[in-house]
Amino acid sequence: MVAFGKSTEKMDKARIRRINDVFQLEYFTDNKAFHKNFDGDNVIQQIRKLILTSFKECIIYTNEYDIVIFRNKNNDLIKRRHKPTKSVVNTTHDKQKNHLINDGREAMFLFDLGICDKDGVVTDKGNKKFIQINRFIQLFDHAFSKISFNNEKIRVVDFCCGKGYLTFSLYHYLQNIKNIQTKITGIDLKSDVINDLNRISKKYNMTDLDFISGDIKTYDDSLDVAVGLHACDVATDIFLSSAVRNQAKLIISVPCCQHQLFRQINNKDLKPMLAYGLQKDRFTEMLTNTLRVLALRAKGYSVDIVEFTSIEHTMKNVLIRAIFTGILDKEAESEYKKLKVMFSITDFEGDSI
Ligand SMILES: C[S@@+](CC[C@H](N)C(=O)[O-])C[C@H]1O[C@@H](n2cnc3c(N)ncnc32)[C@H](O)[C@@H]1O
Predict the structure, then answer these.
(1) Residue 288 counted as domain residue
(2) What is the pLDDT of residues 194-219, one digit of tens each?
(3) Which range marks the domain in which residue 241 is found?
(4) Within 10 Å of residue 343's Cβ, how many Cβ atoms?
(5) Do 201 and 52 share a domain, yes or no?
(6) Per the domain annotation, does 208 fall within a domain?
(7) Which of these, 31, 117, 221, 225, is most buried using a 10 Å CB contact count?
């Protein structure tokens, strides 16, 4: 990590960090963060440029030395070595752990969202969400890379974004790490949370990330990708239906709790299996997700279901991934209808998909 000090002009502070295969300059002006990526060949050139134009000195932290570089009155660059003061994070190691988003030392918005402490280290409390976000992005990326998008800016909507952990992380991943032009919107009912998320996005100068407070039922705008992590109960069905109605090319959903079918299902042949609450709950979850998948296939999506994270990170660990093909699956439509009859289901929000 390289930190710059003694600013001489508009930049308040700056640092250069390695993020996977690229180096990223992050600098702050008027309390807003700006990012610029470049490859390893240009790091020294960038450091020279910043010391000669915007700062008087920088410290390069390594595990062996702190290397201080400063400019003297003649504008010559002087280098001094000192004992190390920081232990440097090995991001290659983090990558091996499949962390596409590294911790707050690379993504300080995670501090504002309560996932990291002020030093950028993921807290015990934030760890489960941190793992979920990374896994979601890993599974997202796998499908995302298969799709060709025509738009200059890819439009992503996070339905029921809650505190915005996924929304911010996806933005950071696509925009800052992958350098893909993206416009991301998070929607949730909680207006106070939404106001705060808009404040944080401004603070980090995430100009194409915004948050809207409202009911996802009313969402009607074009989008390319629709994501929803743990949208509670029927909110998952409402989200899937909004995504299909607005012609999403890719939909990724990790459903949450479900109650609607639990109250209704009835099948005399399966009575012994459904006699115990726990079993009935698990069965209903599987049935609900099966109906969602069939509805998506009937609307022209190719769908797969994968394990989201292991159950120690969340019990709600089924991820549905749907890619639009335009091929309407008639068989899926008839299986959907049959299952509803078989379990005496009359009221299912998934019908709106
Ligand atoms: C369990 S939280 C998940 C939040 C976030 N996606 C996450 O994983 O951290 C579910 C969120 O769905 C929101 N929600 C439920 N129904 C909604 C609706 N109809 N429209 C918008 N938001 C809704 C709630 O306000 C809540 O923030």
Answers:
(1) yes
(2) 999 999 999 999 999 999 999 999 99
(3) 101-352
(4) 19
(5) no
(6) yes
(7) 225
The residue-averaged pLDDT of 148-163 equals: 93
What residues contact 76, with CB distance under 8 A and at least 6 apart? none
- Indicate if 218 and 321 belong to the same structural domain: yes
Is residue 256 situated within a structural domain? Answer: yes
Percentage of residues of the chain with pLDDT beyond 90:
59
pTM over 0.70: yes
Residue 94 lies in a domain: no
Decide if pLDDT at 80 tops 80: yes
Closest Cα to atom 8 of ligand 1: 229
Pocket around ligand 1 at a 6 A CB cut-off: 160-163, 165-166, 187-190, 215-217, 229-232, 235, 238, 256
The closest residue, in CA terms, to atom 18 on ligand 1 is 215
pLDDT tens string 269-323: 999 999 999 999 999 999 999 999 999 999 999 999 999 887 766 678 899 999 9
Last residue of a domain, one of 88, 111, 137: 88
DSSP 27-95: EEETTEEEEEEE-GGGHHHHHHHHHHHTEEEEEEE-SS-EEEEEE-TT--EEEEEE---SPPP-HHHHH
Are 68 and 207 in a shared domain? no
Q: For ligand 1, pick from 133, 188, 212 the residue to mutate: most ligand atoms within 8 Å of CB.
A: 188
